[in-house]
Amino acid sequence: MEPAIRGSVEKIIDISLDEDSLLRKYQIFKYYQEQGIISSVESALFGSVWTNVITVLVEMKSRAKQEINESEMEEFKRIFASRALEIKSRINEIANL
C-alpha cells in the first residue's frame, strides 16, 4: 500500500473516533437497539468505523483507476487490526458516558 493511502487510512480511523461523531452515531444506534433492529450498539459502531475506513480506501483507489490488490487488502486488515482495541476502547468510553 502506498504511504499516502496508508496515512489516509490511519487518518480516517482517527476522524471516525472523534467523540462528537461517535456520540451522535451512538444515539442513533441506541434508538435502533431499543426498536429491536440491532442487538448491539457497540458492534454497530465498530462496523460503522470499519465501513468509513474501507469506503475511503475504495474511493481513493477508484479515483486512481486502480483496484485494491490482495497485498493492499492484507495491509488494510493489519492496520485495522492493530487499531481494533483502541477503536473498541473509544466505543466503550462513549457507551459509558
Overall tally of domains: 1
Strand content: under 5%
Distance between the termini: 37 Å
Number of helices: 4
| Rounded Rg | 15 Å
Uncertain regions spanning at least 5 consecutive residues? none
Total DSSP E strands? 0
Sheet with the most strands, sense and barrel status: none
Structural class: mainly alpha
Net shape: elongated
Helicity range of the residues?
Answer: over 70%
Question: Which secondary structure elements does this structure contain, and how are they paired or packed?
Answer:
Elements: H1 3-16, H2 19-34, H3 41-63, H4 70-95
Helix pairs in contact: 1-3, 1-4, 2-3, 2-4, 3-4
Q: Could you explain the architecture of this structure?
A:
This protein is mostly helical and 97 residues long. The chain has one domain. It contains 4 helices and no strands. Helix 1 packs parallel to helix 4, helix 2 crosses helix 3 and helix 3 packs antiparallel against helix 4. The chain is elongated.
Give a short synopsis of this structure.
The chain is mainly α and 97 residues long. The chain has 4 helices and no strands.
Keywords:
single chain, about 100 residues, mainly alpha, 4 helices, about 80% helix
